[in-house]
Amino acid sequence: MNNKLIFYPMLFTAGLLQAQQKPNIVIILTDDQGYQDLGCYGSPLIQTPSIDRMAAEGLKLTDYYVSASVSSASRAALLTGRLNTKNGVKGVFFPESEGMPAEEITLAEALKEQGYATGCFGKWHLGDLKGHLPTDQGFDYYYGIPYSNDMYIGPSQQFAPHATFREGYTLSKALEDQEFVRTSPRADVKKRLNNASPLFEGDQIVEYPCDQSTTTRRYFDRAIDFVEQNHNQPFFLYITPSMPHVPLFASEQFKGKSKRGLYGDVVEEIDWNVGRLLNYLKEKGLEENTLVIFTSDNGPWLSFNEEGGSADPLRGGKFSYYDGGVRVPCIIRWKGTVSPGVTSDAIIASIDLFPTVMHYAGQHTFSQEIDGINVSSFLENPSLRPRDEYVYVKAGEVHGVRKNDWVYLPKTGNSKFKEGDAPELFNLKQDIGESDNLHQKYPDKVKELQALMLKYQPLAQIQDTPNSDRQYWVRTLIKIADPVISNLSKDQLKKNIPVGRSSSALASSREFVTHMESVGRTIAGIAPWLELGPDNTPEGKLRGKYIQMTCEALANSVNPEANDYFNSTATRQILVNSAFLIQGLLQSPTQLWGNLDATTRQRLIEQWKSTRTMKPGNNNWLLFSAMVECGLKEFSGDWHFPTVEKALNAHKEWYKGDGIYGDGADFHLDYYNSYVIHPLLLQVLKVTVKQEPSFQSFLDEEWVRFVRYAEIQERMIAPDGSYPVLGRSVSYRSAAFQVLGACALFRKLPESLAPGQVRGAMTAMLKRLFDQPGTFDKDGWLTIGVCGNQPELGDTYLSTPCVYLCSLGFLPLGLPADAAFWCDTAQAWTSVKAFSGEPFPIDKFIKQ
């Protein structure tokens, strides 16, 4: 035991406790406990006298909802007060995971600011790497298994010097387990090491493998010890027993005791320890100053039959989005404040605990958006109804909604969606088991609930198509672009943009100008969407806002008096930035170039002309110079054609075949054909043929090659949205698929690719990249990496502003919302078909 907990101060008096102004908070959160699995909720075989006593002395909720039917996502929402559409946690974390984004503010962090001592005892499951453990997220003390008790040791976890080893283990053998985990597939690890869980104290392992038959008792012991040590301040105990999640373990005192078998033994042991804690609070005079909440993280794991719980009379369990998966027991006791013996069917949610607890702790405003509501008035007067609706979130997306007695599940509530599933509508008052689908009978109610669902999607009012993909694309593009455009429009980009980079001298040497590298890259991606122009729809109004901001930003970038002025003589990178900016302006000649004032236009033209002194390398950089000349031709009527001619002739020679060019004379296995070569070459040729028709044949050839490269790209997107990480610039993320997106934008997709198929593939790719925790820092800026924050991918030339090239993965947003790309039904893409055994077209090379 930690020395901090061995020392016992003199017991404090009831008088001292009553003097406290802020209540103590205790949340007991069990794992996978079903709705019925307590005596007071109707269990026929499990006896829970202590928890039943809590219900008799407090408030029992019959319609209490968690935010997800899986552990990590559910716990994240409870601790942040935020839905899983926002808090960055969508599913279940496995060992060696950063987990919940560090920038999320937990209940523990908020209570610490109000002077609370905070302790976590039991399962955490929000990240087991340093920086993401409970002691990094606001808890003064942690003791427990950092994830589900059927998981295994993490390869980078550290052992405490005094660690205890059991079952014949030594430190050496434990390290062998870590190496096995590091080098073996997860399936092999689970088969060999599942249930051999590490027990943590703080951020180190103190017991391995953990004796799980004694964890429930030890968690409550440590919680009581923690109160003994922190009697001079209010405390927050977050007690999270590892069970009744399987595998099940009971101590000798409870093994074989329950009529419900081992599952019942486990629940009854938890109940006995809850009783110990309640008795302790009473003995110390703490009852009237302590809010105690007992609940579960999600419904029962039904597939384990007798070792799983029961959600009766509800339908479904863990993983599902019927009520049995997300509606769980909840009892709230606070003597003297919460009326005793009350049962309420008010809709209350786990996200409501954060603002309610903080209300009593003395904080009423928050720095992050809170989705929960303060239900303190309800606790003091349970005849109130603080909410009449709640939302069902699966994998970070809204999948259903409840309004009063009605539940609408547009994709069914099954844990896995399958062909033939139909939308479902239930009336819980008449059909608590959700067995009678009323979807066809009440179309008006369906429309009402469909409209309500939009309220819970960030930027959900952008509803131009029957599907939510366009909403997601717009929302994500704005998340990427807004920090750059809004800061530059306020002349604060250089001041605020982080310059994360590799440790190279080259990247460091241009730190004072690198902010400009984000600008052309961002505008190149957002320009096609902006060119659709403003209108009276919510999306059109949003476009209008960003058109204005982008024009203001560009004015600052070339204003010598501005802090964000881009000195065109400072670095050769101005050539790159200018080329990408021109790429964007050529695709938004009306809304961007057309809305710039004359001074800004002239300053941009002069800046572009100044790049003529910068000699490009004999590689893809020739296209940067050529693009600048094409921009000058289009926007000023003046160009230096030999620069363009040189680039075009060189690329004729550098074509390698089957739609791929070399980066110079050499072939590189990377994505520069998509980052730079194909998009700029095509644009340069489009401008050139208007002046020099002799290049028409090259343009015709380039279209064939362009489309072929798009066809190749679609096949590179795996069923899960991942793709091969090839080349030195993988931190450009979705820009790797610029050509595929451009083909959709130009309505030039090959016959083999239906628009809905490409949208499906690209949406999966975008979600794989941008929904990963760590992709954005706490202030909303992109980080270096492919999937999350991976700073080691910062090559010598690459700093954080460079990665905004990823905006070029969003080009199809330049298509109107009624285009086939957005309206056609999403289809399986090639790799999905291939690896599910479905027919798919053979791939054939081209000879041009």
* Helicity, as a percent range: 25-40%
| Radius of gyration of CA atoms, rounded to a whole number | 30 Å
Q: How many individual helices?
A: 28
Average pLDDT rating: 91
Secondary structure class reads alpha/beta
What ranges have pLDDT less than 50 throughout 5 or more consecutive residues?
Answer: 1-20, 459-466, 502-510
Write down the overall geometry. elongated
Question: Summed up, what is this model?
Answer:
With 848 residues, this protein is of the alpha/beta class.
Structure notes:
With 848 residues, the chain is of the alpha/beta class. Strands 1, 2, 3, 4, 5, 6, 7, 8, 9, 10, 11 and 12 form a twelve-stranded mixed β-sheet that branches. Strand 13 and strand 14 (397-403) form a beta hairpin. Helix 14 packs across helix 26 (755-770) and helix 21 (621-636) packs antiparallel against helix 22.
Record the SSE blueprint.
Blueprint: H1 3-6, H2 14-18, E1 24-30, H3 49-56, E2 59-65, H4 71-80, H5 107-113, E3 117-122, E4 141-144, E5 159-165, H6 171-183, H7 186-193, E6 199-201, E7 204-208, H8 215-229, E8 235-240, H9 261-283, E9 290-296, H10 323-326, E10 327-333, E11 342-344, E12 348-349, H11 353-361, H12 376-380, E13 389-394, E14 397-403, E15 406-409, E16 424-427, H13 443-454, H14 469-489, H15 493-496, H16 505-509, H17 517-530, H18 538-557, H19 573-586, H20 598-610, H21 621-636, H22 641-654, E17 655-657, E18 660-661, H23 672-691, H24 696-716, H25 738-745, H26 755-770, H27 820-823, H28 830-834
Parallel strand pairs: 1-8, 1-9, 2-11, 2-12, 3-4, 3-8, 5-7
Antiparallel strand pairs: 2-10, 4-6, 6-7, 9-10, 13-14, 14-15, 15-16, 17-18
Helix pairs in contact: 8-9, 14-17, 14-18, 14-26, 17-19, 19-21, 21-22, 21-23, 23-24, 23-25, 24-25
